[in-house]
């Protein structure tokens, strides 16, 4: 049986590239708390599919430009 995959992301870099958008600003745009964004950035929480798409849309990116999956063997 394989281990649970890890969802990695580029949110921190994308926020920096977007005029240094704060976690709170991103959270407000997608309807979650700043703590949720922090947890997603640190890969401690995997977003729902809906939230992942909202985050990607906020940055004008495709979902695979924001999130990647790392399969642990």
Explain what this protein looks like in three dimensions:
This protein has 73 residues and is mainly alpha-helical. The chain is built from 5 helices and 2 strands, in the order βαααααβ. It has a two-stranded antiparallel ribbon. It is globular, with a radius of gyration of 12 Å. The termini are close together. The model has no long low-confidence stretch (mean pLDDT 94).
Sum up the structure in keywords.
globular, two-stranded antiparallel ribbon, 5 helices, 2 strands, mainly alpha
What is the H/E order? EHHHHHE
- Classify the beta-strand content into a percent band: 5-15%
Proportion of residues in helical segments? 40-55%
Separate helix tally: 5
Radius of gyration: 12 Å
Mean pLDDT: 94
| Distance N to C terminus | 9 Å
Oligomerization status of the protein chains: single chain
Output the structural class: mainly alpha
Number of strands: 2
Write the layout of secondary structure elements.
Elements: E1 6-9, H1 11-17, H2 23-30, H3 34-41, H4 49-58, H5 63-66, E2 67-70
Antiparallel strand pairs: 1-2
Helix pairs in contact: 2-3
State the gist of this model.
This protein is mostly helical. The chain has 5 helices and 2 strands.
């Amino acid at each position: 049986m394989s281990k649970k995959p890890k969802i990695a992301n580029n949110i921190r870099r994308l926020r920096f590239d977007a005029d240094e958008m704060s976690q709170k600003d991103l959270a407000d745009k997608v309807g979650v708390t700043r703590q949720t964004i922090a947890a997603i950035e640190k890969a401690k929480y995997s977003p729902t599919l809906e939230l992942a798409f909202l985050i990607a849309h906020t940055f004008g990116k495709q979902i695979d430009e924001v999130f990647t999956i790392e399969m642990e063997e």
